[in-house]
Amino acid sequence: MSQRRVSYYYDPDVGAYTYGPQHPMRPQRMKITHELVSVYGMLDKMTVLRAKRATAEQMTRFHTDEYVDFLARIAPELTHDVPYHGSYPMALHEDNPPWEGLFEFCSLSAGGSIAASQRIASGATDIAINWAGGLHHAKKREASGFCYINDIVLGILEMLRVFPRVLYIDIDCHHGDGVEEAFYTTNRVMTCSFHKFGEYFPGTGTQDDKGRGEGRGYALNVPFKDGLGDDSLKSVFEPVIRRVIEVFQPCSIVLQCGADSVAGDKLGCFNVTMNGHSNCVQFVRSFGIPFMMVGGGGYTVKNVARTWTYETACALGVEKEIDPVLPWNEYFEWFGPRYRLEVLPNNMEDLNVRDSSLNKVREIAMQQLQEITPAPSVALQDVPKESLGHHLGFSSHEISGHDRLDEQLAQHSRFVYNLNDSSSTSSDESSEYDSDASEYSQSRSRSRHVNKSTRTKRASRKAYSSGSYAQQNSHSAMTRGKKRMSIMTNHAASPTPSTRDSREGEREREKTGKTKRRFFESSARWDEGAGRVLVEHERGMYEIERDLGWHTVVNGRRWIESSGSGRGDGDEGREGDESIGGDDELGEGEMDIDDEES
């Protein structure tokens, strides 16, 4: 194969992060891959680069400001303060737990894909590799499937600044729903996903999902059944991709090389060998179109490292020179007992061949390609080489100070990321943020005094978040009505609602047959009678005691009335043991919220 200019992005810190001791996603696989690439002598044959980590502002080119700010603030020790008893307003759950260094890892992953895309767009390289990228499940405002920031979308957006058309190819075992959803309504990006479909995460990716509006027909899905082998994959992948390139005529390609489609993966269900998987890379390379290779899924670490190492050799065109016997390396004992650069098939039956569904899937895909407009055109326009903020001198390193007015303006501008540290130290400043991420930070704030105006703002935000805001940020049309699934269990995974939400959900389900998705709901409510915030079980107990005449609130204090109804015959009007305010001195209109648990 001809020589191509290859750029390889790697950050030595990538192996230091961990999702948790029991979590199947292991960032260490990138470090092991790099070790194998190094001992095979491939580093000298390509340009090795360490990308600048992505900033929060760069992430907001796709993700919402509130979501990025949420990721920057969340930490493992704060999970007990999050509503829904440990589940998360931004759809973090057992698949996507908060862990130490989460935001740094996201910036590392996204930074590599952004830099790789920029290098391809500038013409400095033919192939760019970022094995730390490929997190294709992350949505605009929520995490999903082990993915928090969608580096692929951020990379494609960089390419679109220069190239009129970009082709995205996904050979991960799971459907690339996050990337497809991001470009579902445009014809400048064609998404082509080869994946398992059925009772399988994320539950999307049928051949009926073709795009919408101008993007109608430019979302191509090729679903498979269990046991997909090398020959079956090749018989569909090559004719479909050949036809896609003929019709769409992409200027650049992004190839997501998720290795969970390789045989023996802990969460995969295909029977593709290392050679069958890497054949996709070789076939894409043969067209001579600049393309970026990113990682993705893959949870049997040693097989992931083997596959990505061999595919790095395929990108260089030296795969025939690779010795299948592994040379000595730091992780040599991991690859026993064979110690070879290979992933062999197992005895899974290929269900795609047994019921002849393979031919039908290929025919439907080819028919869809015949119906789309070939090579959609894009109007010529001047593309700025730098952002407007940078051009006007609003870069973060030039901001030397700020006053109260700056803090208020930060609610609606990019400057919020420069104020994170200072605003988090003051409970008063925290209460001023008017966004969904700051609503979360307010709920975990342990401020002892909240004035009436703040309570009014909080109530209005709560009504806003449970109403039109939830409707605005519901799933797109292609996923509406489908339950969120867990990538580890392949079953529906939804936050654990409060008692109140459960009752309301049941009533709504009985009326409409559907359940409305709620954001940032809590069982804690302000009770006028009690004069304080009560959670569900406290509110129930208070109502019982109030009906019995045991409690009276006078001037912000609780008094226990001895009405002879089982409370004893003590002095009437005896002051209770518990003060609503908590502290001895409270200003007018102030309360203590230490008992608030949500």
Search tags:
single chain; about 600 residues; alpha/beta; about 35% helix; globular; disordered C terminus
Give a structural overview:
With 598 residues, the chain is an alpha/beta fold. The termini are far apart. The longest helix is centred in the N-terminal third of the chain and has 20 residues, at 102-121. It is built from 20 helices and 13 strands. The model is unreliable at 83-89, 414-481, 495-503, 514-522 and 552-598 (pLDDT under 50). Helix content is 33%, strand content 9%. An eight-stranded parallel sheet has the order 2-1-3-8-7-4-5-6, sandwiched between helices. A three-stranded antiparallel sheet has the order 11-12-13. It has a two-stranded antiparallel ribbon with strand order 9-10. It has helices at 28-39, 56-59, 65-73, 102-121, 151-159, 177-182, 230-248, 274-285, 301-316, 351-354, 357-371, 388-391, 404-409, 420-424, 427-430, 436-444, 452-466, 468-472, 499-512, 536-547; strands at 6-9, 47-49, 127-130, 166-170, 189-196, 219-224, 252-256, 291-294, 525-527, 532-534, 551-554, 557-560, 574-575. Helix 7 (230-248) runs parallel beside helix 11 (357-371). It is an enzyme of class 3 (hydrolase). Residues 500-518, 568-577 have a biased composition (Basic and acidic residues). Belongs to the histone deacetylase family. HD type 1 subfamily.
